[in-house]
Amino acid sequence: MAALNACKTEKKQYGEPVWGIVTESEPVAQTTCGAVRGENRDGIAIFRGIPYGAPVDGEGRFLPAAPAQPWEGVRDCTKNGPAAIQAGAPSISGNPSGLGEYFNGGHPERFGVAEEVKDENCLVLNVLTPGIDQAKRPVVVYIHGGGFASGTGTLTLGADGWAREEDIVIVGVNHRLNVFGFLYLGDLDPAYASSGMAGMLDLVLALRWVKDNIASFGGDPDCVTIMGESGGGMKVSTLMAMDAAHGLFSKAIVESGSNVVGNFSKEAAAAQAERLLKALGLTRENWKQLLTLPAEEIYAASAGLQLAPVADDINLKYIPGNEIQAYDISKDIPLMVGSSADEMGVFVPIAQMGITEENLVEKVAEGMHVTSEKAARLVEAFKAADKKGNAPWHTYLNIVSMASFLGGGAFHEAMAYAAQGGAPVFHYLIEYDAPAPFGEGYDCAWHTADLPLQMRVVLHPESEFLSRQMAHAWAAFIRTGDPSTKELPWPAFTTDGRQVMVFDTQTRVETDPTAPYRRVDE
């Protein structure tokens, strides 16, 4: 199928580390606010913490951000910028979950998180480029996961191999999260009618920065792909529904995060704001004390709140219901969407659950909150579709994962956009059993295990083949809107054909591989 929104291509061999032409030890690029100085990592220029937005504390708290202010001289962008205020440490660091080494590929020094701070004023981004020239390379803007509560764009700082092999420009964005990005105050003051979308409007502002500045980093402002996994995927889907983001990207990648957009109402969001006021001892009359209280105090009081992009009917249209929908505004945007077979492996304490063949149905009934009869039907369907002879614990993970929006939502988003008959949709399913940092002997297709592989951050040598395969296909999509490569032809997904790329030790195209699971509910 002919690709839409195709970008400039080269005759060189993609997938090989033959790009990376930066020679300066301290490369400098010019932005609309001033010059920035970065570092050179084997021919790739890396810029960290470039401001794209003005301060958002004090009187700017909860409001849409203004663009960054100009500066004098050359700004040092060799240290990480601030991360949003949040709990815990980034998964890329050596955290207790054991995921840190997997996500940093065994090279934490490349990511700079040891010196990273958390701050309200976190509107910064990272840029990696093979050349500071006029080459107009394809651009991918990575929007981090962590739901709407946590995360950073720091993973991109280890993706220089991807930029070097595929000649693409990579951007990673930090933005406001949790109570600072999604607290709806429009019920208290119409001046704050957009406060429940502040975090999403940060992303729009970042995309405008890319539009205005990326050419100075060797990128093509007319060939921009937005890409996110988990919460990042939900943010990508939300951007596809926003008028303000229209024209700022030409392709979209939603990974393990297909969920309903636009059904969190102003009324529901206002109730969360009331809960926060009560926790802080404030009232509707003196709510503006939220602008002067310490950020840490507000964040601590927000524990337990349900916060997400608010359908304020200004920035995001309210659509009731719980079905994933496609948006006409993005009908002409090529979409890649997929998930992993065992998403919940990183969340469920599977090693402590004692799942056996004998108690599998019982465990499924408990975990899914369904009857034993339905649990038995689920087990039967999943076992019949199993090509690997999975152990009982693995079957359990597969069942609960595909029931979650993280695993099962991708099919429904692919169907919704394919039904529009606009730009092509490409659907994938990852069945590769990645090494499991959370327990020896529990390798599975766990949530986000694919993400560093896509960016060529590889800890385990046995994952190298899949990393190269995925990174190459993802980059092909970023370049042309079609992930097909010479080695891996990838048919578009249609409502009739339902062709899906299944990534595994033997990657292949299958017809609707998750159909047996869905039929249990029919």
Describe the structure.
It is built from 14 helices and 14 strands. The relative contact order is 0.13. It folds into 2 domains: 28-263 and 309-321, Rossmann fold (3-Layer(aba) Sandwich), CATH 3.40.50; 336-521, Rossmann fold (3-Layer(aba) Sandwich). Strand 9 (219-229), helix 5 (231-239) and strand 10 (251-255) form a beta-alpha-beta unit. The strands form 2 sheets. The chain has an 11-stranded mixed beta sheet, sandwiched between helices. A 3-stranded mixed beta sheet has the order 1-2-5, with no helix packed on it. Helix content is 27%, strand content 15%. Helix 8 (360-368) packs parallel to helix 10 and helix 9 crosses helix 10. It has helices at 99-104, 160-166, 178-182, 198-213, 231-239, 266-280, 295-301, 360-368, 372-385, 392-403, 405-418, 450-454, 464-480, 515-518, and strands at 28-31, 34-37, 39-41, 44-51, 74-76, 124-129, 137-143, 169-173, 219-229, 251-255, 335-340, 425-430, 499-503, 508-511. The model is unreliable at 1-6 (pLDDT under 50). The radius of gyration is 22 Å and the shape is globular. With 522 residues, the chain is an alpha/beta fold.
